[in-house]
Request: fold
Amino acid sequence: MGFDSSYFTEAERELDAIRMRNRRTGELRIEEIDGKYPDTAALRKELTLTSAKLIALITERPENIRERIAALEKENLSLQRDMRGSLVKHGYPEDYLDPIYNCRICKDTGIVEDRRCSCFMDIVKRKAAEHLNSVTPLKLCGFDEFSLAYYDDTRPTELGPAARKIMAKNLEDCRRYAEEFHLPYKSLLMRGKTGLGKTHLSLSIASEVINKGYSVIYGSAPDLLRRLDKEKFEGGEMLDMLTTADLLILDDLGAEIDNKMYVSLLYTIINSRINSSLPMVINTNLTPAELERKYDERIVSRLLTMDELQFVGSDVRVKKGAEL
Ligand SMILES: Nc1ncnc2c1ncn2[C@@H]1O[C@H](COP(=O)(O)OP(=O)(O)OP(=O)(O)O)[C@@H](O)[C@H]1O
Ligand SMILES: [Mg+2]
Ligand SMILES: [Zn+2]
Reply:
């Protein structure tokens, strides 16, 4: 897929940093062990020597090179075993002095069998998502700033239980959604009137999922669709991102103007994400009946299969305004 090459450059840089950080950690571990345990240190040094001896053999190419390489390999293996045993004896994991990699598949080179490793493409995707989000103002809220005190605890709502009870469940569901985020994953549909915390909770999810290293795009439907429609004439990277980011948070669905092109873009995004089992969090003020009036059945039927959270209570924005 067509990503701007600057994201590749940024990803290379991030991979460099990862390699450097891991090498440094490895060096510190060696210093630590050498300083504390002379027996382990001696084994480690002998191991380093066998590698040097191997290189010397390969350059010198003596008559009996095969036997000597075989003997060295044997020596190397038995030294490794001893060193691991010695580490365990001192209470360390046996691989404590092994090279450290974030990605075992490509050993942090970003390449496997002449192709980009998936870990590298994940970084590229995250860079592209960060860029998209920096264009929309992404003010991240947290779960800890979400207070249940704004919701009434005394009267039943149209759904039965009091608002606070329902919202406590929503908060709990959103926390768990973020905490357990993985791919593939389910989608959420947050429904409810204005000012009840839909954006607040979805940004809380965004912040936690971003921290886990996933690519997350957050945007309001009116804004994303307007930009997407405009970009169609320019290249199409944005549509790629919206359809392939690990998580798409589509806020204010239904607040965009009625426009056939928007509906068709929405369908493309929602449908292709569902086909690749990629999750979405979608927020709307509209009731199912209103959704049906605004969008065709293909979109509505997909929205209504998502896990639904209903937001209830009275406008927190107004209550907070009154506090000031
Ligand atoms: N439970 C809460 N605790 C603390 N702040 C809250 C809570 N719910 C909402 N807010 C704050 O109130 C304001 C409005 O909330 P939010 O934007 O999340 O509402 P919304 O449901 O997305 O409304 P809309 O449908 O108009 O987009 C925000 O500043 C948000 O941080
Ligand atoms: Mg909102
Ligand atoms: Zn990799």
